Amino acid sequence: MVARTVDLRSDTVTKPTAAMRAAMANAEVDDDVLGYDPSALRLETEMAKVTGKEAALFVPSGTMGNLISVLVHCNIRGSEVILGNNSHIHIYENGGISTIGGVHPRTVKNNDDGTMDIDLIEAAIRDPRGEIVYPTTRLICLENTQANCGGRCLSAEYTDKVGELAKKHGLKLHIDGARIFNASIALGVPVHRLLQAADSASVCLSKGLGAPVGSVIVGSKSFIARARILRKTLGGGMRQVGILCAAALVALRENVPKLEDDHKKAKMLAEGLNQIKGLRLNAAAVETNIIFFKVLEGAKLTAEKLCKNLEQHGILVMQESPTSIRVVIHHQISESDVQYTLSCFKQALTGVKEENGN
């Protein structure tokens, strides 16, 4: 029997706190589809203020939030969106923008730091004179933090440049801000500044912030009005959703400061893993709560066997490829959990077990 479990698969595995459960039990609710749920309205009002946008809309998931945002901006089938080849929208959202919205993705290579080169973005914008054969570019999407690049942060200055490019060509800019609060804490820049150049953004509440369910879309009043209709079309219109929004409000008000500790523990874990023979990672590139590392050829275990071995000790991690593993820190991971995890990795790869790792 496993005596201890350290779940590092994702920051989506966080459990609602006692304060969140109490808020859910006592939530004031009404019918949100009709627009009258007071807890939903409180959350949306606060999120609009935090992000510096006119309005906000609660949605069941970040995937739906991104899909709705893309479809609002690309409301004509055959539109094209420019986005990173390593972006969540492109890889992990079931191709929904294409299968549901008829929107064509045009990818630009993500650099190691999560950015896309500005000149490559501009080169990907279709010439309107070729509209008889080309899809029409209408939108650019960024992701902050960029998860598949290891939780790297996009600066406000970089986002401003992409926003200026979008305006130059009459395009819109959407930011997948699933972990925008992580970026804000890591950069020391307010969320509203990081989203200043964006026409819309989706912000996840159930990752690092620890709410049980939901994301929020933010943008102009007219954008949110159209988004509300699409939410209903996609089956995301819920009734007494204030029960969920009440927990999200607790997460927003209480858990944002905890992200700094998450980042410190991620750095601690990365530096420890970097000392273990058989693993390779760039500890200096760990900016937030996500760590990617490779299991080298010739190591004692393959990535798959290492994951299975760790699971026997209660350490749950995510295998990303035949040679790479991802771990994600969240606020329910303690420094003791980090030390225990390092001890288990050392035992698996070098046969060394530290006494303080028991």
Defining key terms:
358 residues; alpha/beta; 7-stranded mixed β-sheet; 16% strand
What would a concise description of this structure say?
Helices cover 40% and strands 16% of the residues. With 358 residues, the chain is α/β, with parallel strands linked by helices. It comes from Salix udensis.
What this model shows, in words?
This protein is an alpha/beta fold. It has helices at residues 18-25, 38-51, 62-73, 88-91, 96-99, 118-124, 156-168, 180-187, 191-194, 221-233, 242-254, 258-273, 303-312, 335-350, and strands spanning 6-7, 55-59, 79-84, 104-108, 136-143, 172-177, 200-204, 215-219, 279-280, 290-295, 315-316, 318-319, 324-328. It has a 7-stranded mixed sheet, sandwiched between helices. A hairpin with a 4-residue loop joins strand 12 and strand 13. Helix 2 runs parallel beside helix 11.
What is the spatial order of strands in the main beta sheet?
A: 2-8-7-6-5-3-4
- The string of secondary-structure elements, in order, is EHHEHEHHEHEHEHHEEHHHEEHEEEH
Cα distance spanning the termini: 15 Å
Q: How many helical elements?
A: 14
Main β sheet profile: 7 strands, mixed
Work out the oligomeric state of the chains in this entry. single chain
Tell me the Rg in angstroms: 21 Å
The percentage helix is: 25-40%
Q: What form results from the Cα inertia axes?
A: globular
Question: Which parts are unreliable, with pLDDT below 50 for 5 consecutive residues or more?
Answer: none
The assigned structural class equals: alpha/beta
**How big a fraction of the residues is strand?**
15-25%
Number of strands: 13
What would the average pLDDT be, to the nearest integer?
A: 96
Function: Threonine aldolase involved in threonine degradation to glycine. May play a role in the removal of L-allo-threonine.
Organism: Salix udensis
Pfam families: Beta_elim_lyase
GO cellular component, one term: cytosol
